[in-house]
Amino acid sequence: MLGLMQDRPLLIADLIEHAARHHGDVEIVSRRVEGDIHRTTYRQAAGRARQVAHALDALALPQGERVATLAWNGYRHFELYFGVSGSGRVLHTINPRLLPEQIAWIVNHAADRVLAFDMTFWPIVKGIAAKCPTVKLWVALCDDAHLQRLTAEGTIANLVSYETWIGSHPTRYDWPVFPDDTASSMCYTSGTTGHPKAALYSHKSTILHAYAAALPDVMCLSARDCVLPVVPMFHVNAWGIPYSAAAVGCKLVFPGAQLDGKSVYKLLDTERVTMAAGVPTVWQMLLAHMDANGLKLPALQRTVIGGSACPPAMIQAFRERYGVEVLHAWGMTELSPLGTLCTLKNKHLLLPEEEQMKIRLKQGRAIFGIDMKVVGPDGQELPWDGQSQGELMVRGPWVIRDYYRSDKPSPLVDGWFPTGDVATIDPDGYMQITDRSKDVIKSGGEWISSIDVENIAMAHPAVQMAACIGVKHPKWDERPIVVVVKKPGMDVTREELLAFYEGKLAKWQIPDDVVFVDAIPLGATGKMQKNKLREMLAGYRLPGL
Amino acid sequence: MLGLMQDRPLLIADLIEHAARHHGDVEIVSRRVEGDIHRTTYRQAAGRARQVAHALDALALPQGERVATLAWNGYRHFELYFGVSGSGRVLHTINPRLLPEQIAWIVNHAADRVLAFDMTFWPIVKGIAAKCPTVKLWVALCDDAHLQRLTAEGTIANLVSYETWIGSHPTRYDWPVFPDDTASSMCYTSGTTGHPKAALYSHKSTILHAYAAALPDVMCLSARDCVLPVVPMFHVNAWGIPYSAAAVGCKLVFPGAQLDGKSVYKLLDTERVTMAAGVPTVWQMLLAHMDANGLKLPALQRTVIGGSACPPAMIQAFRERYGVEVLHAWGMTELSPLGTLCTLKNKHLLLPEEEQMKIRLKQGRAIFGIDMKVVGPDGQELPWDGQSQGELMVRGPWVIRDYYRSDKPSPLVDGWFPTGDVATIDPDGYMQITDRSKDVIKSGGEWISSIDVENIAMAHPAVQMAACIGVKHPKWDERPIVVVVKKPGMDVTREELLAFYEGKLAKWQIPDDVVFVDAIPLGATGKMQKNKLREMLAGYRLPGL
Ligand SMILES: Nc1ncnc2c1ncn2[C@@H]1O[C@H](COP(=O)(O)O)[C@@H](O)[C@H]1O
C-alpha cells in the first residue's frame, strides 16, 4: 500500500524560490574581483538565477548538458548554482588551482558546453579555449566594460560578459519540474590515483544533503546566522552551504579571491559573521593575523573545519582565545561532501574540558542518512571499540554509486563506498581518521597525487625510483616531498630535480624537498612500502621549518 | 541525465537502527501506567522493535496491514512506531479521548488487524471488541501479571500481553527494503466536518519531516538535548518527535498518562529536560503549578507550543519568569504535522524586546519543503502584506494529497491543500492565523465537531435551529457553545438541553453553555453564517469566567 502524500520532487529551484519568498531582503555580500564589496539579496539573486535559466534556454541547451564554472565564491557563482541546475542543466564547478592542461582535460571529459569564469582566470581560459571544442560559449563573470579591459590585448571566440548574457532576459521564469534523481551538478576529484573522476550529484541528493547539513549537530544553520564559506564553491559546492543557506535564509558573505587572514578577518568583522567554514590552512592564516594584531571576533560563534585533520592547537586557540566553537568535520567529494561532524552528546555536557577536547579532536559522528563501518583487510566489519583500524566504508542517499563516464566498474563493494581513509570508530559512534590508505597528499585543502609527483621524477634520466610522501606542515597540513634513488653512476642535485618539475605541475603541487636514499623499501609484490618509508624518515624536517 | 548517487530509499527502520548504532546507550525514560518510572535505551528499544517485527511476521500479517494503538507516550508505544512501520505494516495511532463508538468506527474504517492498548484503555477495548471484527489480536501493553489482574473480572478473545507477544522473538531482524512511498502510518483527524478522515503517511514523507523538524529554525533537536513530548503520540505522531529524536539521538522522556502540572514538572526537573513540546493547555497547567510553588526549571531551554494559538501571556511568562524560549508552531494532521515555526531572523536580533514579541506571537515561517499562500474567496493569491486575510493553502512532500478510503474527491485545489485556517502572511513570510473557516472547535488540543453538537440539539423536540461555535477560553483555548432558536410555542431550559447531551458525546465535547436567540443569521443559500453569529455574540462571556 502506498502512502497518500503529495509526490513533489525535491528540486534545487525550490531552494532559491523559498529563499526569495521568505527571505527576499536577506543580504548576500561578496568581495568581488572588481575590487569592491557588492551587496545583493536573495530576491535579486533569484531573479538573476531565472535570467541565467532563460539565457541557457536561449542557447537551446538541452537538459543534462554541462555548464562549467571557474570561479571564486561570489554572488554570480551563487546565481549560476540555481540558474543552471534549476533549469535542468548540470553545474560543473572546476577547481581553478589545477594546471591548465588538467582543466582542459576535465572540460573535455565533462564535454562542457558553456564555461563561466571569473576575470582572475582569463589567462587560463585564453590558454585552453582552443583545446576545448565542446565549449560553445565562454562567459566572463563581469560586465561589458570590464570585459573590454580584459580583452584589450587579445580575445577568444564566443566570449560574452555575464551581465550582457543574462541582462536582457526576464526575471520571471517557470522552472521545469522533473524527477528528482535527475543530475544537478558535478565535481571532479583528484583524490584518487589516475585521472580526476567526477561525482555526479542529483537534485534529490543535494536537497537531502541541504537538510542534513543545516541540522543542529551538523552546521546548525538558521535564519539568525550570517555565514561565510571560505571553503570554495568549486570544492564540493562549498560543502553544500549555498543550498543549505537558501533553505534556511541565513545571510551569506562570499570572500572572493582574497583568502589571506587580513581580508577574511575584515569580512568576518564588518559583516558580523556568526559561522564560517573552511580547511585548516585558512584558519591558520586567520589565527596568525588575529594573534599578531590583538583582534577579536565577538559575533563569530563557530567554525566548521574539515577537508584535512584539524590540529588540536587550532581547536584550542579558537575556543580559548576567541570563544569560537570549532566543529571538526569529515567528508569527501563522493559524499556531497558531509559524512561526519563532531559535536558532543548530552552525556558529555558535564565532562571536564580536557575530556571534551579529546572528543572534539575526532572527525565525529555520522549524520543520519550516512551509514558507516570500518572493515579489515578481509572486508569483515571491525568492532566500534575506538581501537580497531580499518578502511572506512560509507553508504547513503548522498553518496555516489559510480563516477561519471568512468570506464571502470562501480567503486562500491556490496553497496558500500570505500573511502580510502583508515579510521577507528568508538562505542559512541565517533569516527577518527588515523591514516590514509590512498597515497595522495593534501595540501591547503587540495589534493596532490603522489603518483603524478613520482611519475615526473621517474621521467628524469638520473632517477631510478621515486616515492612521494606527505610530510606534516603547520600551515598547509601536508606538503609533498619526493624520495629518490639515483641510477647507478648518474647524478642529479636537489635543485635540478625541483627545477625539472616546473611547468609540469602547478607550483603548489611541486614537492618541497628531495631526499636521496640508497633504496626504497619494497613489498612482496614490488610495491613501494610507504609506511616503512615514513618510518625511515621519522626524524626528517621540511626545509625552512 | 540521471545523477549517479546511491538510490537508498528513506525508510523508518533506518531511524531506529541509526539510533541504536550511534546512540545505543542514550536513555528513554517513561512514566508508566504501572505507576513507576521505567528506563531503557535506544539499543534496547531497537531490539524490542525488531521483536515486534518478528511478532507481526509470526501472525503472517501482510505488508500494508494496519496495526493500531490506543496508548500514551511511552517506550512500548515508541517500539511499536518502529517495529510496525519498519516491517512494512502501517501504524495507526488512535486518539483514546474519542467516544468508544467513534473509536470503533475508526477501527472498522481502517480495518485494523492488531490493536495494542495501554491498560488505562481496557474499558474502551472491552466495550468495542465485539464491534471490531477486523481485529484478530488485542495486545495489552503490559506483562502477563498485569494482564491477569486486568482481566480478573472478565476478558475478551484473542488477548495477549505485549511482553509475552514479543518476548520469545529474537532481537535481531533484517528489516525489509521497499520503495519509500510505501505507507508507514496513519492518523485520523476530526478537524473536518463529517466522519473522521485519515492522513496516510509514507516512509519518505516521515523521514523528510524528521529532518525538517530537527532543523535549528524548527525544533532544533541535537544529541545534546533531552526532549519531553507532552503532545501525544496518538496526535500526529507527537509532532514527529519520536522520528526526529531517533535521527539525532537525543534523550527522550515520555510522560505517560499524567499530564497535570505537578507530574510534568517533576519529569522536566528530575530528567533535566532541555526541550518540551505540547498544546497551550498543558503549559497553562505547568505554569500554574510552578507559579504556585515558586519552582524553576534551570535545564529547560525551550518549549514548542502549537496545535492552538499560543496566548501572548504564556510566551511572556515562559521567557521572563523562567528564561524559557517559546517557539510558536502551526501544523495539522494533514501536514505530518509541522508547517510553520516562529523563530526570529538575523535582522531581528537587535530589535527591542517588545518588537521581537510581536513577531513571536505569530505562527511563524514556512519550513523549507512547505509552500504556502493565502487566497481570497475567488481563489486568487493575496499579497504578503500582513493585512490581507485569506484561506491558508499549503503543499509539499509531507502534505497529504488525499484522505484514506475517502469517497470524496481529493481535497487539493490545483495541487494545494486548503487548510481551513484563515491567515495573513507578512512581507517577511510570517504567517498568522486570524480565524478558522472550518466549523470545528479545538479544545485542549482536541477537536469537537460543531455538526455533532448541532445535530444532537436539533434532535431535541423543542429546538428549531442550532449553531455550535467556539468561544475563546484561557485554559482550553476554545470551548463550544450552542446557539439555539426554539420552536414556536415550545420551551426548553439551558439545563435541560445540556442534560440532553449526556451519553451522546464525550464529556469534554459537550457545550459549556446554551444561548437562546430569536434567529440565526442565514446566507443566500440558507447556510448558517457563523461569522455573523460570532459578531452578534462579541460581548458574550462563558459561564464561570
Ligand atoms: N499555533 C496555532 N495557532 C492557531 N491554530 C492552530 C495552531 N496550530 C494548530 N492550529 C489549529 O489546529 C489545526 C490542526 O489540528 P490537528 O490536525 O488536530 O493537528 C489547524 O488547522 C489549526 O486550525
TrEMBL record, chains A, B:
Domain AMP-dependent synthetase/ligase: 17-404
Domain AMP-binding enzyme C-terminal: 453-527
CDD domains hit by this protein: ttLC_FACS_AlkK_like (cd12119)
First-tier enzyme category under EC: ligase
One annotated GO molecular function: ligase activity
PROSITE patterns, alphabetized: AMP_BINDING
Pfam families given in the database record: AMP-binding, AMP-binding_C
UniProt keyword annotations, A-Z: Fatty acid metabolism, Ligase, Lipid metabolism
Single Gene Ontology BP annotation: fatty acid metabolic process
InterPro entries (alphabetical): AMP-bd_C (IPR025110), AMP-bd_C_sf (IPR045851), AMP-binding_CS (IPR020845), AMP-dep_synth/lig_dom (IPR000873), ANL_N_sf (IPR042099)
Domain of life: Bacteria
This enzyme's EC code(s): 6.2.1.44
Family from the record: Belongs to the ATP-dependent AMP-binding enzyme family.
Protein name: 3-methylmercaptopropionyl-CoA ligase
Species, as recorded: Tepidimonas charontis
Organism phylogeny: Bacteria, Pseudomonadati, Pseudomonadota, Betaproteobacteria, Burkholderiales
